[in-house]
Amino acid sequence: MIRWLRKYKVTLVVVAVLVCFFLWWNNSRGYNDAAMAGISLDAGIDESSILESEDAGSKLEPSFNKYVDSWNEQGAADTADFKLTLSSVDFKALSGKGTRIESGLGGRSGDALALIEEDSWAEYAFEVPQDGYYQMGMSYYAMEGKRSSIVRSIQIDGVYPFFQAKKLEFQRMWKEAGEPWFDNQGNEFNPRREETAGWQYREFRDAESKVYEPFRFYLTKGKHTLRIQAVREPAAIGEIDIFSPVNVPTYEEVLSTYEQQGYKKVEGQLIKAQAELSTLKSDPTLKRIEDREPATEPFNKDSIVLNAFGGASWRTGGQWAEWEVEVPESGLYEIGARYGQWFLNGMPTQRKVTIDGKLPFKEMNEISFPYKAEWQISKFGGRGESEPYLYYLEKGKHTIRMEVQVGALGRMLETVTDTTRKMSLLGREVIQVTGTNPDPNGDWRLEQNINNLVPRLQLMAQSLDETIKGLYALGVNEGSSEVSTLYEARDVLLSLANDTISIPGRMGQFNDLQASLGTWVNGLSKQSLVLDYLIVKSPDTDWPKPAAGWIARTGTMLYDFTSSFTKNYGGIGNVYEDEQVLDVWVARGRDWVDIIKQMIDEDFTTETGIKVNINVIPAQQMQVLLLASTAGVAPDVALGVEGEIPIDYAVRNGLVNLEEYSDYDEVAARFRPGALIPYKYNGGSYALPENQNFNMLFYRKDIMQQLGITEEQIPDTWEEVMDLIPILQQNGMDFFYPHAPNNPGLAINEFAPFLFQQNSEFYRENGKFSNLDSPEAMEAFKLWTGLFTNFKISKQADFYNRFRSGEMPIGVADYSTYVLLSTAAPELTGWWGMKPMPGIEQEDGQINRSTGGLAQTGMIFKDTDMKEQSWEFLKWWTSADTQERFGSELEALLGVEARWNTANIEALTRMPWQSSDIEAILQQWEWFKEREVVIGGYYTTRHIANIWNQIVLNGKIPREAIEEGVKEIDKELRKKREEFGLNDESTDQQASKGGDSP
């Protein structure tokens, strides 16, 4: 027996570990499931009173679901047989500006009211015959603007009924401008998309499609007013409809009608509509994509073929595309699609499917596409794949439209969002008791100091548990990673309810869960799908096979593998073999570079005759440029180069001094003067900025109102910020200033605003010595680190999620936060603002708000044989027209998330920003100033991070920490100057030439 145990001891150990793990996991989950089943609130605790207290004081409007639930509890019901149509020109009142009357617009007879400017509005009076629910919609005509969809808000009787009413989206129409084009390698590229003008009709519905049907508005019998206000983009209104809710028949009802009409099933028909050939779409981001599965039609093993549609860009609620299908005879057909849904692990996505502009029956509002890591065939039907729905189609052409639908998840996502908000509220109450840095071992008696602490935690866990069950009922696969976040949050809430003493020591975990839940909601709101083709067939015809056999797939993989050794993956578009070809390397993603190359071929080469080859520099591989320069094979021009790099090449005499060109000053005037500082060396300029980051002050209007702080009292100076922080912390909230402890390289950018606002610099004597020990720099360090030491603001936080939850209702953040709030926080529409970041008041009364935003650049290498052509290219690329088009094309391809923050001032004003945001950004840009880049400056970056750590984390006296850091910085600066032969004589010569940095 002993011998046997010794022989198999390793196997036994492994088995034992696996068994123990399984038992632990099962027991843990079973315990918590049992705990959920056994949850009971304390006697005398009213669950509804807890929920009401958590909602009390909120300035945010309720969600649509809560609005309807509230009226349903009061007995509200749908009205019937009512429809009222209002002409847009029969308004009761208009805004003072920004409106005009259009005649004959889009070939339509009569007049129409156009809302042109942001915040322009029109108000209408109407009357309804009875109490109950009504729906609304309007016809509209999208006018020339900035290519974005139209956004309007509506008020009824002077108020927003629910927060979604502040952001109603009305899409434009887009189509392909011509045929796809092919490069000389045989690769296919998307044609340009152009807008199609025309009248459209859309009901007032959720912009994110988290609600299945058009909004229901509860109206009492009598007179009411409806105000429609422009939020974004100009558009004309035709008619406005107010009507009783439309009840779409079910499939069973429609099938009964088919039988009554005597409709017959057709025979012998199989029609495929290739998805890449969509005739119309709501968004220019919807485009053809490549798929390498051999069964995808069409397929070419030797080159790129755009043979599918959608993918990651077809994911946002309300986005639609439509296809034209012609059937040879009238009768009953089945409809389906070959699709790929490998985006949400274990979770289905949904689409709303209409035929000829109408919903055939109710079930088509939520066609589900289950998850699978390979291609599938969807047989549109609700009773399993064995019995697809039947559709009656007349002989001739028909239009099938598919629209992103998130409705099935809508309430669940809202429940989780509400839970994160309640967690944030509870977290603030805990901080009010314990302070921001509590003793984790202290007995804070939270149950005595916070009302209903345990029941509230239990109710939050219960909400998450119900969401988990709802996801499984929806068809989510067992073991889906998308559910694990909810399990973790539920279990943590339960453990906190069982052990409230541990709460102060676990607030970090509690806050991280809020961020995880916020990320989870954002992720599941994106419902991506890939289509190969739509199928319209007779019931007697077999469905196509979903995927190629394993032999074909294996053969394709082997062919791709062997081809990878000879294929040029760096070249983009047309690759020229001529001697006189401009070689441009771009350090950006391939999608971005595809756009640049297409613009070059269509505009630059056509206008100048200069041929250009484009190559992609892999992500995070900027050293490739240095290696190429050293080896003598550098490109002529490089784009997307990080802002600190040009000086490294300039000091090695590797770049062209752009000031040698006679029109440099004219080109430089396109940018803020402070944006050019990092690219100057020894009296010359060696790069041009492409894009430009910026920091702004973001704030929650509703929470500021709760604190008694008006718009005019939002801080303009750091002194005012320090007056505000105690008020925030007394209410369990905090101010945010960015700090990235895991990325010390960002510390210099975090510190720079304080230094510049003190009218100081990083270096003195043309970069010979560090200036961080100057009195002004000392004050800057004290102000910067004092936010963390004296005022105890968070040293690390996910500002976006905590801003949404209200835990950090005000803070400094960069451009990426603006994009997130604009695209992924619809519940905050109208309740957040942005203004220039705080500064220091000067003697003349001005507030110095200086800050930088070092981004990416373009530069010309010294070894180029095409010096003039390179300058022509760089001028073309940084021009306002080119930057505007690139920004528009990029946003059309990748969505608002990829909005191009160009450094060209004129181009920025043309981008699809809201006018109020543009005004705030330009005001901040008036103070834009970037830091110098010097040889050895990386030690400055390193030691600024060290100084912060020494002062904030180790409690060292600021002067002592600064002097130690400056000593090391000066040592490295001297070492590097000696290495590159920058002696005192060369320094004096440089100074006489007006250089900014050595």
Automatic annotation (TrEMBL):
SUPFAM superfamilies: Periplasmic binding protein-like II
Pfam families in the cross-refs: SBP_bac_1 (PF01547)
Region (Disordered): 977-998
Superkingdom of the organism of origin: Bacteria
Secretion signal span: none
PANTHER family: ARABINOSE-BINDING PROTEIN-RELATED (PTHR43649), EXTRACELLULAR SOLUTE-BINDING PROTEIN FAMILY 1 (PTHR43649:SF27)
Name the UniProt record assigns to this protein: Carbohydrate ABC transporter substrate-binding protein (CUT1 family)
Species name: Paenibacillus prosopidis
